[in-house]
Amino acid sequence: MSKARCGSRARAVVAGLLTAAAVVALQLFALPASAANTVNVTFHVPASVQTNPCFPTDVVNLNGDIHVVITTTTDSAGGYRTSNHLNSELRGVSITTGTKYTNSETKDETWFARPPFPSVHTHTYDFLLVSQSNTPDYVVHMTMHETVTAGGVPTATVDKYSMDCKG
Questions:
Q1: What's this model's pTM, rounded to 2 decimal places?
Q2: pLDDT for 23
Q3: Residue 101 Cα to chain centre, angstroms
Q4: Are both 20 and 75 inside the same structural domain?
Q5: Which residue, 79, 81, 99, is CA-closest to 91?
Q6: For FRET with 12, which of 27, 49, 116, 158 sits at 20 to 30 Å CA-CA?
Q7: CB-count burial class (<10 Å; 0-12, 13-18, 19+) for 83
Q8: Cis peptide bond prior to 154, omega within 30° of 0
Q9: Could you tell me if 57 and 124 lie in one domain?
């Protein structure tokens, strides 16, 4: 066999072995594929009259929406990485003074749901309502409870809204 032909054959064998090794390595170290579970929900902040925390003799008619997207993906610890993405669009008007308040924010949070399931997570999100005059801003607090099942399916409920004066 000629020297050139032997070298060509050796390169082909080495290339074949490297390809086989790469395939075996991918099979050994590849994480199992898992589809994410995603839930979209919009919490409507009901049109309601709230005492203005900055002026106790004033009330604000507050309403709007908080859109929540929750995504769970499996993790290597047997649980789920849970990502929350919230967009808020809130507005209110003082019934006494006519002062307008607006809010437009995005909030992101990540937490890990671990066995035993169901796994529950509670978080209070703060949304700044900005005064459209020289009066102080105020903050709306929303407490949300999330539950993730053993199958990675998330649910969310809001059980409390409250307000504080910012300025």
A1: 0.72
A2: 32
A3: 25
A4: no
A5: 99
A6: 27
A7: middle
A8: no
A9: yes
Q: Are 140 and 81 members of one domain?
A: yes
- Residue 82 pLDDT level (bands cut at 50, 70, 90): very high
Distance CA 162, CA 148 (A): 25
Amino acid 162: pLDDT: 84
Angstrom distances, CA of residue 157 to CA of 59, 70, 94, 121, 127: 26, 12, 28, 11, 17
Q: How confident is the model at residue 52 (pLDDT cuts 50, 70, 90)?
A: confident
Which residue has better confidence, 149 or 31?
149
Overall size of the chain counted in residues: 167
Number of domains in the chain: 2
The whole domain housing 74 covers 37-165
Are 2 and 82 part of one and the same domain?
Answer: no
* H or E, element range at 141: strand 138-148
CA-based radius of gyration for the chain: 27
Is residue 100 over pLDDT 80? yes
89 and 134 inside one domain: yes
Q: State whether 45 and 24 are in the same domain.
A: no
- Structure confidence at residue 5 as a pLDDT band (50, 70, 90): very low
